[in-house]
Amino acid sequence: MSNTSPDLDLSLLHEIADGSNEFIIESIDMFLQQTPSSLQDISNALEEMDWATASSAAHKLKATLGFFGMLNSQALIQHIELSCKTGAPNSADVSTKFDEVRELIAANTIALLKIKEETEAKL
After folding, report:
1. Which of 20, 35, 57, 94 is deepest in the core (most CB within 10 A)?
2. What is the pLDDT averaged over residues 44-69?
């Protein structure tokens, strides 16, 4: 269990990587490239009250968060996905949860950059 963040457990990633530091670095790079645009898609959809798009974008992000053991973020994004899926979510609730997700992911991103740096140093 990683102690860099209460919402980041890379044991699944390490298990899949099977000792490959390259795989870990590539996976972190993928997260760093894709996650900001996923968050932006959700943000745009929420602003436009396009609940179907928000739900679909949240669903896509959910798997990524699970892969990196971001279980708190994953639970929040699932709440957003399911709320938006109803077509008439409580906007204030969804907004609050989305702000929480963004804060957690921002902290996780800093931790992942550090882990990436440390992993690259081993190569």
Report:
1. 57
2. 96
